Amino acid sequence: MASLNKDLFAKLDLSSYLWDFEALLARKKSFVLEGDSRLHFKRIEELLKLDFKPPKEVANLNTALMHISKQGIIHLDTCFEFVKIYLYFSYLKSLKAERELKTWLDKIILEKSLLELCAYFNEKGELKDSLDERLLHLNESMKLKKEQISSEFKRLIYTKNISSYLLDNQIHFINGFDTLLVRGGFASFLKASIVARSANGGFYVRPLSIERLENDMQGLREQKEQIYYEYAKKFSALFYKFHSHLSFINRAFDLFDHYQARVLLAKNKDYDFVLADESKDLILKDFAHPMLKNAKSVDVNFSKQVLIITGVNAGGKTMLLKSLLSAALLAKYLLPMKINANKSKIGSFKDFEAIIEDPQNAKNDISTFAGRMLAFSKLFEKKELLLGIDEIELGTDFEEAASLYSVLVERLIFQKAKIIITTHHKRLAFLLAKNEEVELLAALFDEKLMRPRFEFLQGTIGKSYAFETALRYGIALNLIEKARKNYGEDKQNLEELVGKNINLELSLKQALIELENKQERANELLNSLKEQKELEKERFDKELSRLELDFYKAIEEAKKSIRALNLKDKQRALNKANELKKELSLPQKNEAKDFKIGDFVKYNQIKGQIISLFKNEALIESEGLRLRVGLSLLSPSSSIRAKNTSKIELVRLKNASMSLDLHGLRSEEAIQRLDKFISDALIAGFDEVLIYHGIGTGKLAYAVKEFLKAHKSIKGFSDAPLNQGGFGAKLVRL
């Protein structure tokens, strides 16, 4: 299963992504995270908020656990692998985790005796000498023995009779022994055994004095190994006692390893997680395939069963297909991706299939079309399938293919499969478009720049622009014209009609966006007016209630005082109460200020310009919307806007381009045009634009670079991809 998944990852250009992920795991394992996805998602989201150190590399301990279950003795190195896991969980439990992650960690109870065992090891995984006097003595003896061996080698090298036979003064490690290189005749002055012959006729010899010292050293090593064995036996017995607990801890470590690798990848790449739901929708916002560098993010709303992607060659159809499949695959396995997670929605699928590559090769002895049919024959029994088919008509006549595949796709629609199709031909799209479960997507082409835009328009069939693409890549114009003639006037007119239809839909889409924005602003203004009216009424009612209460209290106070006063004083008290009544009056509206047509005013949070005046009201215009407001409610505005702001915005939105060509201009003229272009692009709402400056002497490129660095509204810029100008252009993010 894992190998099949990896094959699918490779088909979708996700192999390098998988390598990056697996490199973050503490030990090698399948990338598949099994269990409750919702619970895993919550824990991962909580771990994202924590600063934690990743675990060290850990060996696979399944074999060791099997030996422990049979009361076997495991090596100290293997014991230390358990220690690393135990110490790491001790560290994790000290973190301030919350909710689901904390609940899970709290369930992992660490045994006191195993924690005490951890103290026997140092950071290198060696037993601490201080825990056993025997180890201290042995290590000291071994240190002295090494010094003796070193001293003996020096003595031999500098002994007069022996030095005359030495071919060099080096100690050579040959066949597992430390040796000296000597010439023939050495036996008269040096007792040694020959280990090997050298290429130039010398002898590698092991002096007997060194051999005795090394034998002593080996004896010390064996004593040390015997002590290590005692501890290994002791630790293994303890591990046997807690075998079930260690098995649980080992599985828990693998689970956390899955979590931490995903979190680290998300943090390193600035990726987000999307939890797959039961909807079967694929709604992507700001998604970019992990393989692409400086990719233009895509937005796709694929809520029906079939998506047919048509349009310009090299316009990104195949990459969009791979992107949709990749997003669903990554969400299935809770792997992070570059996406706006809050505005995206990805369904859950049981099976994935990508029919992308040409199956024809020398090994399988099968044709392209036969391979496609073989792949299709295996699809009809699959449930909850997400299928991607690139260049569906590949390998046979496109007219026949359209008729055949329309029937096959309708059969897959019947069994509730979700299908993404790319095609260069329109007949299949025309045949399937009448089905309400089919939606269309067209790759767009910039007819001014004669290059793909790497953008997509929903709800239409795209034009292929084959002739334009061929011309762009160097095919002679006379050959292109001849091809157009062979293609036929009627078909050419149909292609042009398709192109005009796309442009019309783009214009309508842009107009719809503008209308929606205007409607949204109108709703905001209406809500603001409603809130202001309610606030004014509430303020008026409060003031009226307060004044009535004050008047009532004054009268009551006067009545109480009158009872205790003589006639003259009573009259004075009544006069005072009446005077208070005269002073108490209902709140009045503010006096209207002197305004004239053309003044800029403010009403609550709404700013606008007076275009008409009435007796007590003014008609003001705010961002293309008009409303009547009482003069007493208006105040002068300190922020002044140009009178024709709306018209300027509309014109720029209509005429704004996403690219600017500065070839052949002087630096001063180029910067002036660039400044205006950036301003228009910001008003038009573009996120990204392309600047062509060429390479040449480098002066223009330098001027453009320095201008972009200093501009406050530019988030960043880089050299454009090779297919968009490379070093001779800049891709600017606004």
Question: How would you describe this protein?
Answer:
The protein is an alpha+beta fold and 734 residues long. It has 4 domains: 2-111 and 242-269, no CATH class; 131-222, Orthogonal Bundle (MutS, DNA mismatch repair protein, Chain A, domain 3), CATH 1.10.1420; 282-487, Rossmann fold; 656-733, Ribosomal Protein S8, Chain: A, domain 1 (2-Layer Sandwich). It is 49% helix and 16% strand. The protein is built from 22 helices and 22 strands. The chain has a 6-stranded mixed beta sheet with strand order 9-10-11-7-12-13, sandwiched between helices. Helix 3 crosses helix 11, helix 5 crosses helix 11 and helix 8 (133-157) packs antiparallel against helix 10 (208-241). The longest helix is centred in the C-terminal third of the chain and has 75 residues, at 489-563. Mean pLDDT is 82; it is low at 586-590 and 640-654.
Strand order of the largest sheet: 9-10-11-7-12-13
Radius of gyration: 41 Å
CATH third-level topology of the largest domain: Rossmann fold
Count of the domains: 4
Structural class: alpha+beta
Beta-strand content bin: 15-25%
Distance between the termini: 44 Å
Pick out the low-confidence regions: 586-590, 640-654
What is the share of helical residues? 40-55%
Secondary-structure blueprint of this entry?
Blueprint (H helix, E strand, L loop, with lengths): L1 H10 L3 H8 L14 H12 L13 H8 L6 H17 L6 H8 L5 H7 L14 H25 L2 H4 L8 E3 L2 E6 L9 E6 L5 E5 H34 L1 H27 L12 E6 L10 E5 L3 E6 L5 H16 L12 E2 L4 E5 L12 H10 L7 E5 L8 H17 L3 E5 L4 H6 L5 E9 L4 E8 L7 H7 L4 H11 L1 H75 L3 H17 L16 E4 L2 E8 L3 E6 L2 E6 L4 E2 L8 H11 L3 E3 L5 H18 L3 E5 L6 H12 L5 E4 L9 E5 L1
Parallel strand pairs: 7-11, 7-12, 9-10, 10-11, 19-20
Antiparallel strand pairs: 1-2, 2-4, 3-4, 5-6, 5-8, 12-13, 14-15, 14-18, 15-16, 16-17, 20-22, 21-22
Helix pairs in contact: 3-11, 5-7, 5-11, 8-10, 16-17, 18-19, 20-21, 21-22
